[in-house]
């Protein structure tokens, strides 16, 4: 096996079959692999593909830049353990790699677009960029390079890390980068010029995120505040053209306030064609004139961004954003699968363009590669996944999780449910009582993952925090809209609590940062209480999504793909935070009687399905104590 596949460890159960499945199917079409966290997907995929890396480079796509190091770390182990000399790198965007952006230290943190604008406007005089002419690529080729290692070497040599890594791309057998370099045409061109996609293997990690990643990429929103700031920007210019732009902004603001002053409920669908048509008729103009003024607005936005840079400020402009939004709306307002939504938050009006066409957009992306592998611990049902990302020719397989069934306990509670529009005070109190029994039984770090922020707030109002803290346990809650720094601080404190006398209790929604993506090895998390099934709230946005999917796939399949499967994937991701290796133990309470329904249960991880029992809430403490005692034998 080791001669055929470059696997650096003694293979565990299922891993040889996993590699054989890839080897057998990779030349015939795409490969979809469902295997839980802890299975060892990353080294196994690399081991199966690396024997062919000289002919077919490996492009490894991950959800965020922070995750790009993982496959490169495994590549280093393969080299060390097997005496290989593969080269690979963790490829990051300008936001992470620009030394000039770090030097100028603006008051606000810059995003990708800000740093790209900085680079475009300062590159000719940038010492780091000019230093590239003295770059010696050989200094970087002594083994695979993580993001931090490339950054360190470039800092030492005084050269631009972003463009230095681009010089390394042609030498790489493995390149690890974010999804955006694959699905965003505005970014992918910069990579495929140096790493030909057509002869490369593409591996998409945590591939269940593709639909949301695609939707986020092609969506945008503006508010009344955007128009207010845009007015302030244009009023600084003294020209007839600037007055034309100012008049358009005033007209847009007036029409928005009039059209949406009475948004029924929180949000409503709006028709941009009718909205713009009514406005243009009032001023005796046509769409061509509107586009002309929007393009003028965009040019003034660029001037504002340059001026901001010169003043040492973040190069952002509401004129630039506003013009791009409306130009994109005009381009897409007749496109099926693009929704337009108006919502109100107090006195503010929000307009959103939302692209729902994941399968249509992604279908052609996969054809750019020699072959593709899609992997995740929550890819099931594979047929639904494949259809919703536009895969037409694929082989799929689900591999059994590697966990010890004697260290797993899973229960569905009777009498608890979050079904309905509101959670009654009586049901919220029943949940808190059941969670109290869970807290009493499990004397280690545990998490309460709720179906939404609304449900989480209902439980806290019903006394969840007080109950936990009265027992001497620290309570950590994820808050809606919290910053990355704040969430990291909470996460680190919760993990530290695992080793204290009184372990922590984390409360977070299944749709938040902690329920998906956070890593809790060993004692850092040993139990989860799921509160409800994390279905999307039946908002106008959800209704439009369902309507679109029903149009594409039919009513029954449309509801299943757009509503049921995503909810159970969220639940599965939350449950998956507990078990990371065969040595881990886990207690799972599925706090909603609907989990007993076969249509939902069959979408849960195998280690839950195979161990699931029904329990009365009053038996939770005694049953869990007995089960935990058996874990120690």
Strand line-up of the largest beta sheet: 3-4-2-5-10-1-11
Secondary structure tally, helices: 28
Output mean pLDDT.
94
> So, CATH architecture of the domain at 405-631?
3-Layer(aba) Sandwich
CATH classification, class level of the domain at 405-631: Alpha Beta
Tell me about the largest β-sheet.
7 strands, parallel
CATH superfamily of the domain at 405-631: P-loop containing nucleotide triphosphate hydrolases
Helix content: 40-55%
What does this 3D model show about the protein?
With 633 residues, the chain is an alpha/beta fold. Among the domains are: 220-355, Fumarase C, Chain B, domain 1 (Orthogonal Bundle), CATH 1.10.275.40; 405-631, P-loop containing nucleotide triphosphate hydrolases (Rossmann fold). It is built from 28 helices and 18 strands. The strands form three sheets. The protein has a seven-stranded parallel sheet, sandwiched between helices. The chain has a seven-stranded parallel sheet with strand order 14-15-13-16-17-12-18, sandwiched between helices. Strands 6-9-8-7 form a four-stranded antiparallel sheet, with helices on both faces. Strand 14, helix 23 and strand 15 (505-509) form a beta-alpha-beta unit. The radius of gyration is 26 Å and the shape is globular. The two termini are 35 Å apart.
Features:
633 residues; alpha/beta; Rossmann fold; 14% strand
Task: Give a short summary of the structure.
The chain is of the alpha/beta class and 633 residues long.
Mind sketching the topology for me?
Blueprint: H1 15-25, E1 30-34, H2 41-49, E2 58-62, H3 69-82, E3 88-90, H4 94-97, H5 99-104, H6 112-122, H7 127-130, H8 147-157, H9 161-168, E4 174-178, H10 180-183, H11 185-192, E5 201-204, H12 210-217, E6 220-223, H13 224-234, H14 240-259, E7 267-269, H15 272-283, H16 287-310, H17 318-332, E8 338-345, E9 348-355, H18 358-366, E10 371-376, H19 382-388, E11 394-398, E12 408-413, H20 425-441, E13 446-450, H21 453-461, H22 464-470, E14 475-477, H23 484-497, E15 505-509, E16 527-531, H24 540-553, H25 555-575, E17 586-591, H26 598-601, H27 606-609, E18 612-615, H28 620-631
Parallel strand pairs: 1-10, 1-11, 2-4, 2-5, 3-4, 5-10, 12-17, 12-18, 13-15, 13-16, 14-15, 16-17
Antiparallel strand pairs: 6-9, 7-8, 8-9
Helix pairs in contact: 1-2, 2-3, 12-18, 13-14, 13-17, 14-16, 16-17, 20-28, 24-25
């Amino acid at each position: 096996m080791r001669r055929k596949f470059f696997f650096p460890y003694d293979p565990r159960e299922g891993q040889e079959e996993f590699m054989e499945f890839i080897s057998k199917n990779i030349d015939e079409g795409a490969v979809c692999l469902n295997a839980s966290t802890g299975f060892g997907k990353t080294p196994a995929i690399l081991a199966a593909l690396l024997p062919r890396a000289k002919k077919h480079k490996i492009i490894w796509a991950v959800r965020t830049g922070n995750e790009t190091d993982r496959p490169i770390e495994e590549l280093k182990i393969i080299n060390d353990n097997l005496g290989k000399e593969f080269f690979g790198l963790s490829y990051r965007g300008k936001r992470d790699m620009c030394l000039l952006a770090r030097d100028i230290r603006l008051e606000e943190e810059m995003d990708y677009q800000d740093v790209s604008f900085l680079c475009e406007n300062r590159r000719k005089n940038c010492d780091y960029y000019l230093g590239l002419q003295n770059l010696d690529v050989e200094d970087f080729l002594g083994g695979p390079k993580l993001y931090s290692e490339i950054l360190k070497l470039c800092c030492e040599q005084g050269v631009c890390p972003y463009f230095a890594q681009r010089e390394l791309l042609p030498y790489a057998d493995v390149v690890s980068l974010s999804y955006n370099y694959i699905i965003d045409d505005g970014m992918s061109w910069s990579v495929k010029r140096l790493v030909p996609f057509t002869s490369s293997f593409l591996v998409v990690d945590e591939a269940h995120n593709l639909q949301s990643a695609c939707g986020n990429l092609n969506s945008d929103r503006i508010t009344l505040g955007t128009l207010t700031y845009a007015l302030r920007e244009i009023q600084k210019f003294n020209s007839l053209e600037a007055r034309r732009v100012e008049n358009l902004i005033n007209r847009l603001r007036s029409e928005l306030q009039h059209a949406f002053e009475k948004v029924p409920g929180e949000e409503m669908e709006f028709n941009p064609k009718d909205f713009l048509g009514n406005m243009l008729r009032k001023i005796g103009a046509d769409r061509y004139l509107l586009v002309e003024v929007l393009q003028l607005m965009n040019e003034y936005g660029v001037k504002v961004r340059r001026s901001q840079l010169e003043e040492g400020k973040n190069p952002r402009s509401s004129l630039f954003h506003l013009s791009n939004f409306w130009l994109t709306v005009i381009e897409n307002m007749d496109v099926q699968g693009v929704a337009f939504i108006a919502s109100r938050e107090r006195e503010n009006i929000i307009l959103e363009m939302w692209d729902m066409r994941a399968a249509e957009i992604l279908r052609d992306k996969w054809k750019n590669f020699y072959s593709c592998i899609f992997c995740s611990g929550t890819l099931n049902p594979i047929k639904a996944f494949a259809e919703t990302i536009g895969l037409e020719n694929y082989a799929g397989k689900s591999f059994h999780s590697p966990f010890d069934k004697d260290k797993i306990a899973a229960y569905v509670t009777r009498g608890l449910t979050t079904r309905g529009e509101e959670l009654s005070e009586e049901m919220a109190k029943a949940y808190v009582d059941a969670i109290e029994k869970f807290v009493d039984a499990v004397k280690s770090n545990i998490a309460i993952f709720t179906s939404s922020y609304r449900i989480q707030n209902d439980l806290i109002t019903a006394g969840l925090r007080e109950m936990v803290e009265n027992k001497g346990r620290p309570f950590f809650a994820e808050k809606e809209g919290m910053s990355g720094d704040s969430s990291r601080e909470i996460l680190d404190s919760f993990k530290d609590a695992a080793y204290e006398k009184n372990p922590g209790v984390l409360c977070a929604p299944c749709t938040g940062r902690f329920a998906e993506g956070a890593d809790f090895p060993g004692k850092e998390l040993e139990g989860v209480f799921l509160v409800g099934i994390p279905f999307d709230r039946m908002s106008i946005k959800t209704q439009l999504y369902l309507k679109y999917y029903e149009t594409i796939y039919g009513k029954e399949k449309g509801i299943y793909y757009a509503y049921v499967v995503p909810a159970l994937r969220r639940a599965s991701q939350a449950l998956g935070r507990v078990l990371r290796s065969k040595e881990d133990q886990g207690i799972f309470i599925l706090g909603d009687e609907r989990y007993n329904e076969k249509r939902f249960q069959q979408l849960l991880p195998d280690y839950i399905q195979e161990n699931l029992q029904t329990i009365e809430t009053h038996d939770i403490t005694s049953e869990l104590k007995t089960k935990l005692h058996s874990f120690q034998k």
